[in-house]
Amino acid sequence: MSDLFKLEGIHVEVKGKEILRGINLEIREGEVHALFGPNGSGKTSLINAIFGFENYKITKGRVIFQGEEITHLPPYEKAKRGLGISFQRPPAIKGVKLLSLARLCAKKDGLLIEEYAKKLNLLSHLEREVNVGFSGGEMKRLELFLLLLQDPVMVFLDEPESGVDLENIALIGQAINRLLGRKVEPDPEKPIKKVLKEKRKSALIITHTGHILDYVEADLGHVLLGGRIVCSGNPREILHTIKEHGYEECYRCFGGRK
Amino acid sequence: MRELKLTEDEKKRLLMTGIDLEGKDRAGSFFLCDQEVSQCTINQDGLELLPIQMALEKYDLKDYYWKLLQPEKDPFTKRAEEHLEGGYFIRALPEAKVTFPVQACLFIRMDQFTQDIHNIIIAEEGSELHIITGCSTSPHVRSGLHVGVSEFYVKKGAKLIFTMIHTWPEEMVVRPRTMVLVEDEGVFISNYISLLPAKDIQAYPTAILQGKNSVATFQSVLLGRKGSLMDLGSRVILRAEGAKAEIVSRSVSTGGTIIARGHLVGEAKGVKGHLECRGLLLSSEGVIHAIPELEARAEEVEMSHEAAVGKIAREELEYLMARGLTEEEATSLIIKGFLTLEIKGLPPALKEQLDALYEEMGKAL
To answer: Is the pLDDT of residue B195 over 60?
Structure first.
């Protein structure tokens, strides 16, 4: 399997302050990676910089997607090439109906709007304004709903479980598996192995608590600390260590500095 | 009455101004071109529609004509008294439910013309009346003066919805002067939409809630472009027990100066009112100045206001761009959302028309 997405020595500045100092990361086709790190370690900044948001400047390094350098392309060019994002805190957009936005996202197939809205319990929200008065769980369901419609090649999920109650977490987990092609229906035309291969998408999931990994299987985990990825390995083992000993142990691995 | 031949460009402009030229789904149509009435038709029982001069001959209107407004108010109002070029008299008879809107168009075709108008609108007891007024000019007209005096009477238990759409040329000076009197249990709803902003437009329509449990709502959508000055507000005087008022305005400036005013005066115990001014500034050349005022003159008055003026939030733009919308598409979606007021109590046909207008507005930017 070849590299789908690659970060080469990425440095990111936010309001003149360097937050990330040389991030290297390779994600191959169909792989799901989990990114751990304490609050303020720069996980969200990394995703925002990858998408090219204004306040997150890539000062050094390259972003490669499907063999093309996309470092400084505007966000919609990145979306067009097949990158998708689920925001940690999506903004409310007054006056814009969810259905209007859904139609814009589902350029390919408008018929899926109702089907996905039903699956994500959002049918009655279609006539409401985007994120206006939505609960934490509703916001996260909306993010996945739009991503399903966009049908990207690779997704970045920024804390998909934060602010979501237990009841909704399973629903979110299912939606992510569907989005990533990890849960597919048998197809009479071809064997399931082939279907899985075709539908499988790559993802980088930011998780602070790790709860979402009870529902979504990750292939590799990384720890972001002090602006660098300090450790990569089995995501369950990493999560276990963090849960048992906190990020203190990670700081020790990193060289004892905080 | 002479039939008016409209050019294609004029028809297009009128359509944007909310006027249905075939008068389909309209309870009545009135058309004033410069100072000549070219159409005055009624399609529904319970409705009276006359040119103002004819109404003055036919009826004794001393309880209505120059009753809420006085010519001495300002020089423009005075002008309207001295040079009456026309206007309409619309009345819904008691208990009449005029389901389709009545449309009135005040049109200017002669360049540098001054049109002085006086309108009287009466919703008699228990009646329901919708009016769409479109004020516009032929596309070749560059400048002129439009002075419109309007006096509204909403009687006991009546409901009056008044929608006014302005599409003025760049050099136009516009001075509407409007007063509304609402009796017991009466409801007055005003929607004002200014699509093509004039050079200089100033208005401060005022509703007096004279009767118990009367209600007034003013909603305005304003677009100011470079070179235009719009000083617009709405005022409600809550004078009786149980009176309720709401004033909502949305302003977008692409370079013009917009002064968005609002004023609630609570004169009776326990009245309630809310004022909301929101502005979106799309160019550093423009100015949006929100001036919300609350004035309590009685006990237990509940009045509040919220005003917010700013530019499009970068965060919202980026959210939409990350979903594949270009910066232009995202901007236009946000502006359209900002301008789309969920106006309550509108007939579905009018609602559709307004949605189409907002769409046009989004494109015009």
So the answer is: yes
